[in-house]
């Protein structure tokens, strides 16, 4: 699948040595150092293309964009892969409800997603892979699980025994009853007759009447969601023999911790004998005006709607960065307006002939980002610099600050 065009990321001054990035890990529940390496491998779960791109999506991809930018700025290469679940029940259900072709719906939403990512200045993945184009990979991964004795049929569907890995459950920290409840709420089928364990997950769904299917060694059908990401991650970010984990960073929204990432991790351990990721990183949820934002409530706010109404995408980016990625937080007109007002002052400072000293603000942006992506404090430092500039202070290197804002925060004014 075609990715979206990226922007050229400026390079920070060579003498700047960035502190080691620290990120909260969902498995250990600790803030951990992302130890310095030449090459990182990062996999971030992509959208199911039927309602792109709401602000929750935007916040998630922004979080991993900040990680991507920081690791690049320290001089490393980031191999970044993202999937698109371009065949799954929610897509087919939406297409049926709206009486549109599911493929057309998917393509139109993927196009919209791409343009939203460009507008928000999110750097593109190196490989942007759709589930449909990954069907061969998925069937190979299912075969590997089969050889390990972890697959069984129910009718013509195939299921994976999540407890084949003794570590199952250690990412989400949920007990079995909690897992079953959430599994059911998020598209799982814990009560299905024929399952060995309620938490086993579908990896291959035999073709249903009126639904698409693809021929494979496992019969005519389509992939389950979790195995799709496992297969794509392992193929495009191949585990290195001398590393203890398959990849460095597995990412997504916090609603993916269970069942999705827990089940992907279980599958990867059975296939490779290794932990899937060194760091499991999750971005919190975005609500609207005091309520959870969700498709069932019908209160999703879309990036394209805001942009089409004249909102500067940089104001959306700024507003989403004004609180910490790990905080569930609210979106509102007031949040947006505050970001717009702050940007106006920063722009005014940038336009000033002289600007306040920039050394402190630049090092604070870097240091706050290193501390588990504390964008809120980083942006507060920029506000203070703008206020000092507008109060008449001078002696700063404006160009170096602009480079830092672009390279690390993705802000371009
Ligand atoms: Zn995924």
TrEMBL record:
Any one GO CC term of the record: cytosol
A molecular function GO annotation: cysteine-tRNA ligase activity
EC number: 6.3.1.13
Gene3D superfamilies: Anticodon-binding domain of a subclass of class I aminoacyl-tRNA synthetases, HUPs
Record key words, sorted: ATP-binding, Ligase, Nucleotide-binding
ATP-binding among keywords: yes
Residue ranges of coiled coil: none
GO terms under biological process: cysteinyl-tRNA aminoacylation; mycothiol biosynthetic process
Keyword Ion transport: no
Domain tRNA synthetases class I catalytic: 40-340
InterPro entries with a match to the protein in the record: Cys-tRNA/MSH_ligase, Mycothiol_ligase_MshC, Rossmann-like_a/b/a_fold, tRNA-synt_1_cat_dom
Catalysis performed (reactions): 1D-myo-inositol 2-amino-2-deoxy-alpha-D-glucopyranoside + L-cysteine + ATP = 1D-myo-inositol 2-(L-cysteinylamino)-2-deoxy-alpha-D-glucopyranoside + AMP + diphosphate + H(+)
Top-level EC class: ligase
Pfam families for the chain: tRNA-synt_1e (PF01406)
Cited function: Catalyzes the ATP-dependent condensation of GlcN-Ins and L-cysteine to form L-Cys-GlcN-Ins.
Family affiliation: Belongs to the class-I aminoacyl-tRNA synthetase family. MshC subfamily.
Entry protein name: L-cysteine:1D-myo-inositol 2-amino-2-deoxy-alpha-D-glucopyranoside ligase
């Amino acid at each position: 699948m075609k990715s979206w065009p990226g922007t050229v990321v400026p390079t920070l001054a060579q003498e700047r040595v960035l502190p080691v990035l620290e990120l909260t890990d969902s498995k250990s529940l600790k803030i951990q150092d992302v130890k310095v390496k030449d090459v990182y491998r990062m996999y971030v779960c992509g959208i199911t293309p039927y309602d792109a791109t709401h602000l929750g999506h935007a916040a998630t991809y922004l979080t991993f964009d900040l990680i991507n930018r920081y690791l690049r700025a320290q001089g490393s290469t980031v191999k970044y892969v993202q999937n698109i679940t371009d065949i799954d029940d929610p897509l087919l259900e939406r297409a049926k409800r709206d009486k549109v072709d599911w493929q057309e719906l998917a393509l139109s939403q993927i196009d919209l997603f791409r343009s939203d990512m460009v507008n928000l200045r999110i750097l593109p993945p190196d490989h942007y892979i759709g589930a449909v184009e990954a069907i061969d990979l998925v069937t190979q991964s299912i075969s590997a699980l089969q050889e390990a004795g972890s697959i069984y049929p129910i009718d013509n569907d195939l299921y994976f025994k999540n407890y084949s890995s003794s570590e199952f459950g250690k990412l989400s920290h949920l007990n079995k009853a909690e897992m079953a409840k959430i599994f059911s709420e998020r598209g799982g089928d814990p009560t299905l007759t024929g399952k060995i364990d309620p938490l086993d997950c579908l990896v291959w769904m035999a073709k249903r009447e009126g639904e698409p299917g693809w021929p494979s060694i496992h019969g005519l059908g389509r992939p389950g969601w979790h195995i799709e990401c496992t297969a794509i991650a392992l193929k495009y970010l191949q585990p290195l023999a001398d590393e203890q984990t398959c990849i460095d960073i597995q990412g997504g929204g916090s609603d993916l911790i269970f069942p999705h990432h827990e089940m992907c991790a279980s599958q990867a351990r059975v296939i490779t004998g290794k932990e899937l990721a060194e760091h499991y990183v999750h971005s919190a949820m975005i609500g609207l005006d005091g309520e959870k934002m969700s498709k069932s409530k019908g209160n999703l706010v879309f990036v394209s709607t805001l942009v089409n109404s004249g909102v500067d995408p940089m104001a959306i980016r700024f507003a989403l960065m004004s609180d910490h990625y790990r905080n569930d937080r609210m979106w509102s007109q007031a949040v947006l307006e505050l970001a717009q007002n702050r940007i106006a002052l920063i722009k005014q400072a940038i336009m000033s002939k002289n600007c306040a000293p920039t050394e402190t603000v630049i090092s604070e942006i870097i240091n706050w980002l290193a501390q588990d992506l504390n964008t809120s404090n980083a942006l507060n430092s920029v506000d203070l610099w703008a206020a000092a500039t507008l109060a008449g202070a001078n002696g700063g290197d404006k160009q170096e600050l602009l480079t830092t804002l672009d390279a690390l925060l993705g802000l371009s004014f």
